[in-house]
UniProtKB/TrEMBL annotation:
Highest taxon of source: Bacteria
Pfam families: Acetyltransf_1 (PF00583)
Gene3D superfamilies found in the cross-reference section: 3.40.630.30
GO cellular component, one term: ribosome
Family matches, as InterPro entries: Acyl_CoA_acyltransferase, GNAT_dom, YpeA/RimI_acetyltransf
Protein name from the UniProt record: Ribosomal protein S18 acetylase RimI-like enzyme
Length: 173
């Protein structure tokens, strides 16, 4: 496996928009109300919103490439950009997605390892946390196998549909 992690910039906006929508739809569309899901995607993944996120100095997007082919992406947030915890001693792994055709190749594990290393390299960061939908048992098992544990819950709205995300964390030694 020869993967490359490349930090995104504004010139990556269109590709980031495409992979954000594609991976989210592939992962969650069949398990949600179609109308509420479409409304959510139309609101959550706009050029303007992603451009603002890319320009936020407390957030970093990374593309994962295999031989120059885009296979996935991830997003890390420092305290000011975090969606929930907002602890200056933590990093939020807000997004980590692999395109369907590249799943099952251990790319997710590689990406998680890179995200953990990037977080550990930040001075004063002692843990990583994330939110994962309570019904995404495959992802929950993946995170548990990699040392994360549940420490709370928060509501997530898919349109008007209130759902529950587990908050999970990995403490650095």
């Amino acid at each position: 496996m020869e993967l490359e992690l490349r930090k995104c910039n504004l010139s990556d906006l269109e590709m980031l928009l495409w992979i954000s929508k594609k991976t989210f739809e592939d992962t969650f569309e069949t398990d949600n109300d179609p109308h509420e899901f479409r409304k959510y995607v139309a609101h959550a993944f706009t050029r303007k919103k992603l451009k603002n996120e890319l320009q936020n100095k407390a957030s970093d997007f990374y593309f994962v490439l295999e031989k120059d082919e885009l296979v996935g992406y991830l997003k890390l947030n420092q305290a000011g950009a975090q969606t929930d915890v907002k602890d200056k001693n933590s990093i939020e792994l807000e997004r980590i997605y692999v395109l369907v055709e590249h799943q099952g190749k251990k790319f997710g594990r590689w990406m998680l390892d890179k995200a953990i290393q990037l977080s550990k390299d930040q001075k004063g960061v002692y843990f990583m946390w994330l939110g994962v939908w309570e019904h995404n048992t495959k992802a929950i098992r993946f995170y548990e196998r990699n040392g994360f544990h549940k420490f709370g819950e928060h509501s997530f709205f898919m349109g008007k549909d209130e759902q529950t995300d587990w908050l999970m964390r990995l403490d650095f030694e």
